[in-house]
């Protein structure tokens, strides 16, 4: 997501980054105001925005972006069937599970794979934030995140596909902006990741509580 200025000479320095985290809708707050559940519509909107941001990594990332979009769409399609009943993501999944002979249908499984992809991206961005060297080379950060979050569920072909994507990552300044102009973007990223991680942790606990995790390899 690029920010452009009509008159660069007259305007103050801007963060010329592919992703401007201040412009992304944060993931939902999970507290007593929403029964300690995730609001489905809010989750879907935030999911689509972060996927749009990841799409700026380049065309070679289109397969993983497409997969995430498809999993979001599965949830959205289910939500549209009864927006009142499925106001909260947890209720949507439990109703879906109870209404099928196979609890791991496209929606339950789709959210599981979406969560795993999001966990990888959250860890990747957190690795960037915690890198005190501010190295332009970000491939090690994505590799580490992949190994922790997705590798256990990927077979040989999926691993080879990731290795190809990993080779074409943009640089740190391309993603987040140059060091002189990106401090607000880094602060926005830190704030964004706090709720992002809270949602992922909540979903992990929910899937564990209801025995919804699966460990087959894609």
From TrEMBL:
The lineage of its organism: Eukaryota, Metazoa, Ecdysozoa, Arthropoda, Hexapoda. The keyword Chloroplast does not apply. One of its GO terms (molecular function) is ceramide 1-phosphate transfer activity. The keyword Manganese does not apply. InterPro entries: GLTP_sf, Glycolipid_transfer_prot_dom. One of its GO terms (cellular component) is cytosol. Keywords: Transport. Residues 38-177 form the Glycolipid transfer protein domain. This is Glycolipid transfer protein domain-containing protein.
């Amino acid at each position: 997501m690029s920010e452009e200025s009509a008159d660069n000479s007259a305007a103050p320095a801007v963060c010329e980054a592919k992703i401007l985290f201040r412009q992304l809708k944060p993931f939902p707050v999970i507290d007593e105001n929403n029964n300690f559940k995730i609001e489905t519509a809010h989750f879907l909107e935030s999911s689509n925005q972060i996927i749009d941001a990841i799409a700026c990594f380049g065309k070679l990332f289109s397969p993983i972006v497409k997969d995430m979009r498809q999993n979001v769409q599965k949830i959205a399609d289910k939500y549209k069937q009864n927006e009142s009943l499925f106001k909260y993501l947890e209720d949507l999944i439990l109703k879906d599970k109870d209404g099928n002979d196979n609890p791991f249908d496209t929606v339950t499984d789709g959210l599981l794979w979406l969560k795993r992809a999001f966990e990888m991206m959250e860890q990747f961005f957190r690795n960037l934030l915690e890198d005190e060297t501010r190295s332009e080379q970000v491939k090690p950060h994505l590799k580490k995140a992949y190994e922790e979050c997705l590798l256990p569920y990927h077979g040989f072909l999926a691993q080879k596909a990731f290795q190809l994507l990993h080779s074409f990552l943009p640089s740190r300044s391309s993603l987040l902006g140059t060091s002189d102009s990106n401090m607000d973007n880094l602060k926005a990223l830190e704030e964004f990741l706090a709720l992002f991680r809270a949602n992922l942790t909540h979903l992990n606990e929910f899937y564990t509580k209801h025995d919804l995790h699966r460990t087959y390899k894609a």
